[in-house]
């Protein structure tokens, strides 16, 4: 494997699978924060310490395969160009923090990109497992197995009372961040999300945009994750999140049904107008593209639009991000140039589906 393997395609192999409830839940993610014992946290570590951490993790992995994950490739961030790092962020394989702020970071990726182990981000290790659809329990199981596998080879910073020690106090304890990416257009259209989000926050969960903290929920795609990591077991944290997600799935389906029954013509008009924009625009900004893609995906899920793959939203939401557009063009582009290329790529993708 090489860098080209990970940045040449917009959609990761695992994203092509159909998971449970994938009409609403796009993906499930488990991330575990871990630190090596007797080493400064990455933000305070010297170059030598950081390089030692990378070497230790690399040696722990070696050339071994782990179960269905296969072999891992390690990429040093200081050897990557800014555009390549941006593409990895857009594919959710590394965090913006690792790409922009980590001085001596690296990432270990498996071939289908379902596992990403970030090294020297805010913590020495951030083990991330990604599954299609609503598969939090499966993601937790795999993350736990990978965690045990690594812990056999390196010593973690752990306190009997506090649990796993992390750079940020909000991660102390289990070090667990569980999250799901959900497409909730009907709840947005019916203006229910404005009251749902505060209710979710009161349950110790947080609602963010597609790229996590500080990002806007474009295209009606929301990331729901836990905030509490201390005082609960990993299983309890995941179960709490699962309960809320199940309720959101039920509410979204009810809202979709109500729209079809009460505003059928208006809904279909919205869907086909958005389809027309995607199929014919010569210039389109990312926010408008995301909204139109959301409408078309809703139309596909409701059977209003036939013959187009459901994965078109997942693929084009990533393919039309600034990094990928410039990767595709093989040159740096200004905002207007990106908007023109975005429209071209979307038209070509829609035409391919219609062929």
Automatic annotation (TrEMBL):
PROSITE patterns: PHOSPHAGEN_KINASE, PHOSPHAGEN_KINASE_C
Annotated GO biological process: phosphocreatine biosynthetic process
Keyword list, A-Z: Allosteric enzyme, ATP-binding, Kinase, Nucleotide-binding, Transferase
Motif (RDXXRA motif of the pArg binding pocket involved in allosteric regulation): 338-343
Pfam families reported for this sequence: ATP-gua_Ptrans
Domain named Phosphagen kinase C-terminal: residues: 24-255
TM annotation in the entry: none
GO molecular function, one term: creatine kinase activity
Enzyme Commission number: 2.7.14.1
Family: Belongs to the ATP:guanido phosphotransferase family.
HAMAP family attached to this UniProt entry: Prot_Arg_kinase
NCBIfam families the record matches: PRK01059.1-4 (NF002194), PRK01059.1-5 (NF002195)
Role summary: Catalyzes the specific phosphorylation of arginine residues in proteins.
Name this polypeptide is given: Protein-arginine kinase
């Amino acid at each position: 494997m090489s860098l080209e393997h990970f940045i040449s395609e917009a959609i990761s192999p695992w994203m092509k699978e159909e998971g449970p409830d994938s009409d609403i839940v796009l993906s499930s993610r488990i991330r575990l924060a871990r630190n090596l014992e007797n080493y400064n946290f990455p933000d305070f570590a010297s170059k030598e310490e950081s390089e030692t951490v990378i070497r230790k993790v690399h040696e722990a992995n070696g050339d071994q395969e782990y179960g269905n994950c296969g072999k891992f490739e390690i990429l040093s961030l200081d050897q990557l160009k800014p555009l390549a790092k941006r593409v990895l962020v857009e594919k959710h394989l590394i965090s913006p923090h690792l790409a922009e702020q980590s001085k001596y970071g690296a990432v270990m990726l498996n071939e289908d990109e379902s596992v990403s182990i970030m090294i020297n981000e805010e913590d020495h290790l951030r083990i991330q497992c990604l599954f299609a659809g609503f598969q939090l329990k499966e993601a937790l199981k795999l993350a736990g197995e990978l965690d045990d596998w690594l812990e056999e080879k390196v010593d973690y910073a752990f306190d009997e009372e506090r649990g796993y020690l992390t750079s940020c106090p909000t991660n102390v304890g289990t070090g667990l961040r569980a999250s799901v990416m959900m497409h909730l257009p009907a709840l947005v259209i019916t203006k229910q999300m404005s009251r749902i989000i505060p209710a979710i926050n009161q349950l110790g969960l947080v609602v963010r945009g597609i790229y996590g903290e500080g990002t806007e929920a474009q295209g009606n795609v929301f990331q729901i994750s836990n905030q509490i990591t201390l005082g609960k077991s990993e299983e309890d944290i995941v179960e709490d999140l699962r309960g809320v997600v199940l309720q959101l799935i039920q509410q979204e389906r009810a809202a979709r049904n109500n729209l079809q029954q009460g505003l059928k013509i208006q809904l279909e008009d919205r869907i086909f107008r958005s389809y027309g924009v995607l199929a014919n625009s010569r210039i389109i900004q990312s926010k408008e593209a995301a909204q139109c893609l959301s409408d078309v995906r809703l139309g596909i899920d409701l059977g209003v639009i036939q013959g187009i793959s459901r994965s078109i939203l997942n693929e084009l939401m990533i393919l039309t991000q600034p990094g990928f557009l410039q990767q595709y063009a093989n040159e740096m582009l200004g905002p207007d140039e990106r908007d023109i290329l975005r429209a071209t790529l979307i038209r070509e993708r829609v035409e391919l589906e219609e062929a």
